[in-house]
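Objective 1b. Sequence-to-structure analysis of Phage shock protein A.
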Amino acid sequence: MSVFRRMRDITVATLNERLEQSQDPVKLIDQFLRATRDDITEVEKLFQQYASHTKQLKQQVDQASLMKDKREEQAILALKAGEDHLAKLALQEKIIYEEKLEQYGELLEDSRLSLRELENQMNELKLEYQTVYSKRQYYSARMENIRLQQRMNQRMGEFGGKDVPKMFDRLEDRITDWELEARSLRELRRAGQDYLDQASSSVSSILEKEMARLKQKLSNGGKE
């Protein structure tokens, strides 16, 4: 496992630990995503450099292999022509190209292994990014639910329906007081009218009696 991969594992572990304690997981996840994007960019650049280097090594290997075969053919031709000296020179160059082929072949294999490792790391990082981004959307939706719930609770606290019954209770008490006051006034007026009616009836009775007395007096010639 490369040092880069170990660093990424530590970062993920730290993220998992901090998420459990974070008050704003979305903000923490965004920080992680930004760092991961930077890592992906870095790996992509390194991958391109390794790809270019691997291509150059492949060219060196192909050239050494071609020249090795070519010098061997030249050595055979020289031997057939009885030119032993030229055959030796061709074989000497062949040995040089064989050594070059072996050296560059090892470098090429190492470069290819590193290139595959980088490609795997790049794919893992992209998958990791997509996974965490998906979690980010989920936690973002949950945090939005919490914010909206808090706003709703705040409005319910300020204008909540629980105060409506109390408001109507107070209104009911006031209206009841007004009704009692009006009823009392009405009863008072009715009592006053009854009193006046009674008083009027009493006065009428007295007047009738007085009229009757006067008529009796007149009929008696002015005597009681």
